[in-house]
Design a protein that fits this description.
Helix content is about 55%, strand content about 5%. The chain is mainly α. It comes from Candidatus Kentrum sp. MB. Belongs to the 'phage' integrase family.
Length: about 220
C-alpha cells in the first residue's frame, strides 16, 4: 500500500513541478515549494490526498517549534498550491497566520565597504563587490548582469528579472562605468559582465562566504 501511495505521490510531484514553472514563479520560490511538498510527503507517508485539519494542525504546530517562520510559510503556501493546482481541491483550511514583519536592510557603511575592497585580492571579486555597492544591487542581480544591460549613453543600468519578476533602472556612476570598461577588457565576454572561468555565470555561494571575514556574516541575496 505504501509503495502505491509513493508512486502516486511521485507522479503528482512531477505535475506539481510543471505547474510551478507554468505559473512563472521565481526559481527560488519553485525550489521552496517543491522542497515543502517533499518534506510534507515524507512526513505523511506520501498520502497527501485527504489530510484532515487535525493532521495539518499537528504538523504545522510541530514545524513551528523546530523551524523558522520562513519554512512554515513555504510549507503552507506550497501545500496550498499543491491542493489547488495538482489535486484540484479548494483550500479552505485557515490554520496559521504568519506574523507580518518589516525589517530594515543591513546597510554596509563606507568604512566596511573600503575594508572589503582592500581585503579582496581577486580582481573579479573586487570589481563585482564595488559594482554591487555603487549600484545598490542584490547579489543575484549583480551575478546576472550582462554587457547589454549597461547604458553608457544615459548613464544607467537595466536590472532584469529582479525580486517579484520586475525590471528597473539604476543610475550608473562614471567611476563604476570606467571600472567595468577596464574589467571587460580583461575577460572580453560578449554576454556576461562577471563570467566564471569557463565563460558561464558565477556561483553565488562562494561570493557570500568570501565576505564573511570582513563583515562577520556572508553577503545576502
Amino acid at each position: 500500500m505504501k509503495s502505491a501511495s509513493k508512486a502516486n505521490f511521485k507522479q503528482n510531484y512531477k505535475t506539481h513541478l510543471k505547474h510551478l514553472k507554468l505559473k512563472g514563479l521565481q526559481p527560488s520560490t519553485i525550489d521552496a515549494y517543491a522542497r515543502a511538498i517533499r518534506r510534507i510527503g515524507a512526513h505523511f507517508d506520501y498520502r497527501l490526498d485527504d489530510l484532515s485539519e487535525a493532521q495539518l494542525t499537528d504538523y504545522f504546530s510541530d514545524l513551528l517549534d523546530s523551524r523558522s517562520w520562513s519554512v512554515v510559510k513555504h510549507d503552507l503556501y506550497g501545500l496550498k498550491f499543491y491542493y489547488t493546482h495538482v489535486l484540484h481541491k479548494p483550500w479552505t483550511i485557515d490554520l496559521i497566520k504568519p506574523p507580518k514583519t518589516q525589517r530594515l536592510p543591513d546597510i554596509v557603511t563606507p568604512d566596511e565597504a573600503k575594508r572589503l575592497f582592500m581585503a579582496t585580492r581577486v580582481l573579479s571579486f573586487r570589481v563585482f563587490f564595488f559594482t554591487l555597492y555603487s549600484l545598490g544591487l542584490r547579489l543575484g542581480e549583480g551575478l546576472r548582469l550582462q554587457v547589454g544591460d549597461i547604458d553608457a549613453g544615459y548613464r544607467r543600468v537595466h536590472i532584469r528579472n529582479s525580486k517579484g519578476n520586475k525590471d528597473r533602472f539604476v543610475p550608473l556612476p562614471d567611476t563604476t562605468l570606467n571600472l567595468l570598461r577596464r574589467f571587460w577588457q580583461v575577460h572580453r565576454n560578449s554576454v556576461l559582465l562577471f563570467p566564471n572561468r569557463r565563460g558561464g555565470v558565477k556561483v553565488a555561494q562562494p561570493l557570500r562566504h568570501w565576505s564573511a571575514p570582513v563583515f562577520g556574516t556572508p553577503c545576502k541575496r
